[in-house]
Design goal:
CATH class of the largest domain: Alpha Beta
Strand content: 15-25%
Radius of gyration: 21 Å
Low-confidence stretches: none
Number of domains: 2
Largest sheet: 7 strands, mixed
């Protein structure tokens, strides 16, 4: 039995999903693979190929109190809570060609792939991609106290490029992606997901909650760019900076969505929007590091339509949108700048289509 889950990149809307704002995300053809066979025991024996590590789990052990980051056990715990039981042991190999801790959701891909595997062996019926995504969200964010929203789990499970509404009335729309390839360049600087996310999430949400005290009908989704300044005297400078970034990024995501829905989207315009998004992530949310800044600047200087940091920040990777004729030169420039790994990637299907 095999289960595969793709990595994901956020095209527009970084640091928006935990605010209930929409994002545009894309699954890419880098995969986490989970493959297993029954072993006639009561143990799950995991071989983590890339980490050269093994994990042995007794199916009868207590899963009530688990360490954060123990993704395999948290998946089992979440499945049990949802009446999906594993009734026999398996020898399971886990392998991946996804950059680790680099902003393209290796942890979420692992969780989605594991859930897909266990659901397949349980013979559960009428399971949807959305259900797997929600189980993955429960396992990674709810059970482990994660700081993110639903973008990672849903974009990986559903696949393709999606416009994802993350507010309480949750919905998504698959959209066409006009780019033949993406360039993903891993800086090699390990990102600090929880540290960065918790700080930005708490400060931004706090600023919005304070606004609601004085403005009972306040709705972040409906704030126009022209309305930003009228709230400046209602919060301190730091809170206003985060609030302003949220509204500006929301407007950029909406503009990108409208462009992507056109019959012939303008790659130049999408690149300009991406560059604006990155500048906000860099200057207002301060989530970049010097090597990331250098790589993004080099991408622009060598003909890229657009480039931006991917993921929570503090390190990780950048996404580059470029004309095919410029790709080789840009890739060489990334390595010259100090990038650890640089790959070309395409849009991937979701977990049920792999």
């Amino acid at each position: 039995m095999i289960s595969k889950a793709p990595a994901r990149i956020c095209l527009f809307g970084d640091h928006q999903d935990y605010l209930g704002l929409p994002v545009i995300a894309c699954a890419i053809n880098k995969y986490m693979s989970v493959e297993g066979l029954p072993n006639n025991t009561n143990y799950l024996l995991f071989s983590l190929i890339d980490l050269e590590k093994e994990v042995k789990i007794n199916l009868d052990e207590d899963f009530s109190v688990l360490k954060k980051g123990d993704h395999i056990r948290h998946v089992i715990k979440t499945l049990k809570k949802n009446n999906i039981n594993i009734d026999k042991g398996y020898d399971i190999k886990i392998s991946s060609d996804i950059f680790i801790n680099a902003g393209i959701s290796s942890s979420s891909a692992l969780i989605v792939a594991l859930i897909g595997f266990f659901i397949k062996i349980s013979d559960s019926k009428n399971i949807s991609e959305e259900f797997i995504a929600e189980l993955a969200y429960q396992s990674e964010v709810i059970e482990q106290g994660g700081s993110g929203g639903r973008m990672d789990q849903y974009s990986i499970s559903i696949g393709n490029t999606i416009y994802l509404e993350t507010k309480s009335a949750f919905s998504y729309e698959k959209i066409n992606n006009p780019f033949k390839n993406f360039i993903i360049a891993n800086s090699g600087v390990e990102k600090k997901t929880d540290l960065v996310l918790k700080k930005l999430k708490s400060k931004t949400i706090s600023s919005i909650e304070n606004l609601r005290i004085n403005n009972p009908t306040f709705n972040l989704n409906k704030i126009a760019v022209n309305d930003i300044d009228k709230y400046e005297n209602q919060m301190n400078k730091t809170s206003f900076r985060y609030f302003k970034a949220a509204v500006l990024n929301h407007s950029i995501t909406q503009a990108a969505f409208l462009e992507l829905k056109k019959k012939n989207p303008s790659l130049n315009h999408l690149g300009i929007l991406m560059n604006r998004h990155h500048k906000i992530l860099k200057n207002d949310l301060s989530i970049t590091v010097p090597l990331i800044d250098k790589m993004v600047d080099l991408a622009f200087e060598n003909g890229a339509y657009g480039a931006k940091i991917i993921g929570s920040g503090g390190g990780g990777s950048i996404l580059i949108l470029a004309n095919e004729k410029d790709e080789k030169r840009i890739i060489n420039k990334m390595y010259n700048a100090g990038a650890k790994e640089v790959v070309k990637a395409n849009v991937s299907r979701g977990i049920f289509s792999l």
